[in-house]
Structure formats: structure tokens, C-alpha cells
Automatic annotation (TrEMBL):
<dbReference type="GO" id="GO:0030833">
    <property type="term" value="P:regulation of actin filament polymerization"/>
</dbReference>
<keyword id="KW-0446">Lipid-binding</keyword>
<feature type="domain" description="F-BAR">
    <location>
        <begin position="1"/>
        <end position="246"/>
    </location>
</feature>
<dbReference type="Pfam" id="PF00611">
    <property type="entry name" value="FCH"/>
</dbReference>
<dbReference type="GO" id="GO:0055037">
    <property type="term" value="C:recycling endosome"/>
</dbReference>
<feature type="coiled-coil region">
    <location>
        <begin position="87"/>
        <end position="114"/>
    </location>
</feature>
<dbReference type="GO" id="GO:0031594">
    <property type="term" value="C:neuromuscular junction"/>
</dbReference>
<dbReference type="InterPro" id="IPR031160">
    <property type="entry name" value="F_BAR_dom"/>
</dbReference>
<dbReference type="GO" id="GO:0007274">
    <property type="term" value="P:neuromuscular synaptic transmission"/>
</dbReference>
<protein>
    <submittedName>
        <fullName>FCSD1 protein</fullName>
    </submittedName>
</protein>
<dbReference type="InterPro" id="IPR027267">
    <property type="entry name" value="AH/BAR_dom_sf"/>
</dbReference>
<dbReference type="InterPro" id="IPR001060">
    <property type="entry name" value="FCH_dom"/>
</dbReference>
<keyword id="KW-0175">Coiled coil</keyword>
<dbReference type="GO" id="GO:0008289">
    <property type="term" value="F:lipid binding"/>
</dbReference>
């Protein structure tokens, strides 16, 4: 009862705290677009699932606290109703069984005393009869006895001994019956009456304990299962969260940021395509340009490779480094240089030879 009462208070406080935490974020506008709200793979949808799951877990805990509170109240009510009734019933049954056993023990003690007394009297009579017989055989009449008186005394003791022997057989049988009867009664008390009295004292205690423990266990299992079922789906959706998916959803909801079709700078109408005119110096200036831009591309490539080797040496397990703003100008320069080399290659210059030499 004390555990259920304290557990109810703890679960209620914990559940309400989770609900207050979730309410702080539920009020915020976390939906950036219609597509993200409908796609469970977006980061916003997963985050929304986490917040709603937190609120759901809080509500489940509050519900569980009501279960524990009901268990505490039920335990107190049933204990008050059955405690005195079961105690009175059990005590009465135990006292009755012990009184019956006490009567049996008294009967056994009485039979034992009778048997012991008669056995002692028989032994005394037997000793006296043997003494008289011995004196008769020896003609030891002493001063106060004659032979006739000794014979009379011998007959008296023999008759008493025979009577004692006859009575002793019956008393011994009665004592044996009382002994086995008391033993059986004691065994019955130990195996039957005493366990029954203890069961009466317990009453339906273990049935109520079983119901109470089962209800508490079921409440915890249902609480954990409800939370697990909710966050299992959130966990599966969170694995699919990626930048490409969020970017696609963002572009679907904001067409202004969508990539336009490939565009090129407009050429004069008189030119059908970009081309190089042969200079008047027999191509020396074009070769100079090819050597210049091949050297530029090779230098950028070496710098990039050197930077990657340095980063790889910092960690035994190198990972991809995010692209920073400082990396953008070299990349732009390399792209422009490669475009110039492509135009020179189209003009017929051996750009690859200059690149191989520069590398």
C-alpha cells in the first residue's frame, strides 16, 4: 500500500513534468511547409513525433498513477475489512483445536499414571510373594510367624499378584490405546488443524496480494509498451532523416529557391558557338595560356591533396569534413581554370601534356 501510494505520486509528478515540457514546444511553429508535415522522413516531422511522444508518455504516466492510487485505496479498504474478521475466525479455530489436543494429552497422562501405579503395586506384591516363598522353603518362620501363618500370607500375596497381573494387562492395553490415539491426534493437529488454522488466519491475503502485484506489473508493462510503440516509429523515421530529403521537401514548398534550368550567358547572334581565333604569333600565346592554366589546376590539385593528407593524420578514422566558406574560392578558381583548359583543348592544343608535366 505504501509503495503504491508513493509510486502514484511519483508517476503523476513525472507525467505532468513531461507534459509541461512538451507543451513548451508544441506551441511553437515547427512546420516549415506542407510537404514536411506530411512526410515522416523530414527532420521537422521526426522532431514533432518526439514532442508528441513526450506528451503521450506523460499522459500514460498520469494514467498509471491513477492505477497505483486505486491499488493503494483498494489495499487499505480490504485490509481494514478482513483483518479483524480473519483474525477472530483463525484464533477461534486454533484455540478449539488446541483444547481438543489438550484433552487427549490429559487422557494419555491419566492412563499412564494408572499403568505406572498398577505396575509398581504388582512389582511390590511380586517381591513380597517371592520373599514368603523363600522363607517357607528355608523354614525361616522367625519369631512372629508360624508355618501356617506363612502359608496363609503366601496365598494372600499370590492372589494379589494374580489380580494385579490381570488388571495390569487391561490397564496396559488402555495405556497403549491412549498412546497411539494421542500420537494420531498430534499428527492430525500438526498436518491438518494447524495448517488449516494458519490458512484461516491468512484468509484471502495471498489472493489479494496476487491481484495487487499483477495489477501493478500490468500497469508498468502497459506504460512501457505504450511509450515503446510510439518511439519505435519515431526511431525508424529518424534513421531516414537526411539533408537531401529535407532539401527536396523545402524546394517543393518554396519554388522560388528551386534550381532553374541550365542557363548560359547569351552570345551575340553572329556567333554560333564559343571558339578561339588563331592568333598571329603561330599559337605561342595560346600555348602560354595552356601552360599557365594547367599549372594553376595542378597547383590547386596538389594543395587539396596535401590538405586531405593533413586532416587524415589528425584522426585514425578520418571522416568527411564539411565544406566551409574558405574552401569556396579555390573551388571556383579550379572550375574556371578547367573551363579555360577545355576551350584550349577544343582549339587543338595538347592541354593534357601540359597537365601531366605540371602534375
Amino acid at each position: 500500500r505504501s509503495y503504491s501510494k508513493q509510486r502514484a505520486a511519483i508517476d503523476r509528478e513525472y507525467g505532468q513534468a513531461l507534459q509541461r515540457l512538451a507543451s513548451q514546444f508544441v506551441k511553437r511553429d515547427w512546420q516549415r511547409g506542407r510537404g514536411e508535415a506530411s512526410d515522416s522522413r523530414s527532420a521537422v516531422a521526426v522532431w514533432k513525433g518526439v514532442i508528441e511522444g513526450t506528451a503521450h508518455a506523460g499522459q500514460v504516466r498520469v494514467t498509471a498513477s491513477e492505477t497505483y492510487r486505486a491499488l493503494a485505496a483498494e489495499a487499505a479498504r480490504t485490509a481494514r475489512l478482513s483483518k479483524e474478521r480473519m483474525l477472530k475466525k483463525g484464533i477461534e479455530r486454533l484455540q478449539k483445536a488446541q483444547a481438543e489436543l489438550l484433552e487427549t494429552v490429559k487422557e494419555l497422562d491419566k492412563a499412564k499414571k494408572q499403568f505406572t501405579h498398577l505396575q509398581r503395586s504388582s512389582e511390590v506384591a511380586k517381591d513380597k510373594a517371592a520373599d514368603v516363598e523363600a522363607r517357607l522353603r528355608k523354614s525361616d518362620r522367625r519369631i512372629f510367624h508360624t508355618k501356617a501363618s506363612l502359608q496363609k500370607l503366601s496365598a494372600k500375596f499370590s492372589a494379589r499378584l494374580a489380580e494385579h497381573s490381570r488388571q495390569l494387562a487391561g490397564v496396559q492395553n488402555e495405556y497403549g490405546f491412549a498412546l497411539v490415539s494421542a500420537t494420531a491426534h498430534l499428527e492430525h493437529y500438526r498436518r491438518g488443524e494447524l495448517p488449516a488454522a494458519m490458512q484461516a488466519l491468512d484468509g484471502d491475503l495471498y489472493e489479494r496480494l496476487r491481484e495487487h502485484l499483477s495489477a501493478a506489473s500490468r500497469a508498468e508493462v502497459e506504460t512501457c509498451r505504450a511509450t515503446q510503440d510510439w518511439f519505435q516509429g519515431v526511431a525508424e523515421a529518424s534513421v531516414q532523416v537526411c539533408r537531401e530529403q529535407d532539401l527536396l521537401l523545402f524546394l517543393q514548398d518554396h519554388p522560388a529557391f528551386a534550381l532553374a534550368p541550365e542557363q548560359r550567358f547569351q552570345l551575340p547572334a553572329v556567333l554560333a558557338q564559343v571558339c578561339l581565333l588563331p592568333p598571329g604569333d603561330d599559337g605561342a600565346s595560346l600555348e602560354k595560356e595552356a601552360r599557365r592554366w594547367a599549372t594553376r589546376v595542378a597547383r590547386d590539385h596538389k594543395n587539396k591533396a596535401h590538405s586531405e593528407e593533413g586532416l587524415a593524420g589528425l584522426s585514425p578514422h578520418p571522416i568527411g569534413v564539411p565544406l566551409g566558406l574558405d574552401d569556396v574560392p579555390p573551388q571556383v578558381s579550379r572550375v574556371k581554370a578547367e573551363a579555360r583548359l577545355a576551350l584550349l583543348r577544343a582549339a587543338g592544343l595538347d592541354v593534357d601534356a601540359w597537365l601531366a608535366g605540371a602534375m
